[in-house]
From TrEMBL:
Residues 1-20 are annotated as: Disordered. PANTHER family: AFG1-LIKE ATPASE, ATPASE N2B. Keywords: ATP-binding, Cell cycle, Cell division, Nucleotide-binding. It comes from the Bacteria. GO terms for biological process: cell division. This is Cell division protein ZapE.
């Protein structure tokens, strides 16, 4: 980065935040775009009846927290069957699963937590298994967005972690992502999920949601990219002059810096930032770097931070065979979010 670029905006690579266990737990709430998410504000797509069915089922799940009504001493009313303590929403990108999960979180009693699979595994990795269980002990409800099966180690870690919490009375809700063009993959993912958590498998209701990715309904197929670093720098200057909190980093240096920070702290790294500018974006060839970027993009997207970039369009950053490999779902989700973040 030139001296001129350094003078225009601060750098994310200058941030190396630390966080306590309490601070990490405090970040486990729905993304701010879902601050007011409710069952009433969810709009099922009439072309996909499974969305309305999912809304009905998750609303019923939320109602099971209400205390049972007594029929009196002489009542002969039949006792309603006990509701399962977990619900699993299985479907493609952008069909409203996170909206429904956030609405359920808002309806749930506390203590309660909301995070992605990556956030929970990162937190357990940062604190250690025993400390993480202690931290979440007594939680009434835990929501896990984007449960993933592509890392057996993380999957089994979460299996054990959730098992400990369910045994203590915690209720769960989870979602998974299925690429829209992967026919039948969602159902197989649900089956894999159940096999992995066999100790609590019979406690989950599986709900399938079909539909189109709303993020791509009105967005072109590529993330917006500036034609040169000079054009990017000019845009950064204008936004900084307008009072926006904007950072500017060479893409390769940011990717390298992400490797020095635990993923659980990425959220604090972008605290207070309105716009992230990345110069000279190039395709990633190292899968470790690519997966770190996926985790970072999740935090950026949840915070609704806009991305400005020059070089390779960000939706083309996962190069080679990455989109055809075992982490395909992660890269497709990140690509969808990069297109949205570069188009906000």
């Amino acid at each position: 980065m030139t001296a001129e670029q350094q003078a225009v905006a601060p750098r994310l690579t200058e941030r190396s935040p630390s966080m306590t266990a309490a601070e990490l737990a405090a970040t486990l709430v729905p993304p701010r775009q879902f601050d007011t998410a409710s069952f009433e504000s969810y709009r099922p797509d009439p072309d996909y009846p499974s969305q309305a069915e999912a809304l009905e089922k998750i609303t019923a799940f939320a109602g099971s927290w209400a205390p049972a009504k007594s029929g009196g001493f002489f009542s002969r009313a039949k006792k309603a069957p006990a509701a399962k303590p977990g619900i699993y929403l299985d479907g493609g990108f952008g069909v409203g699963k996170t909206h429904l999960l956030a609405a359920l979180w808002h309806a749930a009693p506390g203590p309660k937590y909301f995070g992605t699979f990556i956030e929970y595994t990162a937190l357990v990795g940062a604190l250690g298994f025993s400390e993480a269980v202690k931290l979440f002990h007594g939680a009434r409800f835990i929501a896990i967005d984007e449960f993933e099966l592509d890392d057996p180690g993380d999957t089994m870690l979460m299996t054990r972690f959730l098992g400990e919490l369910v045994a203590g009375g915690t209720r769960l809700a989870a979602t998974s992502n299925t690429p829209p063009n992967a026919l039948g993959e969602g159902r197989f993912a649900a089956a894999d999920f159940l096999r992995e958590i066999q100790a609590i498998a019979d406690r989950f209701d599986i709900v399938r949601i079909d539909g189109l990715d709303y993020r791509r309904r009105d967005i072109e197929g590529h993330a917006v990219a500036f034609g040169s670093d000079a054009e990017l720098l000019s845009a950064v200057e204008r936004r900084a002059a307008a009072g926006e909190s904007i950072t500017l980093d060479p893409f390769s240096e940011l990717v390298e810096h992400l490797g020095s920070i635990h993923p659980s702290r990425y959220i604090k790294m972008i605290d207070g930032v309105d716009v992230i500018a990345l110069s000279d974006v190039t395709p990633l060839l190292n899968q470790t770097d690519a997966l770190r970027l996926v985790a970072f993009v999740d935090r950026v997207y949840d915070a609704q931070i806009r991305i400005l970039a020059s070089g390779t369009p960000l939706d083309e950053v996962f190069a080679g065979d990455m989109l055809n490999g075992g982490y395909r779902k992660k890269y497709l989700r990140a690509t969808s979010r990069l297109i949205a973040s570069a188009s906000l």
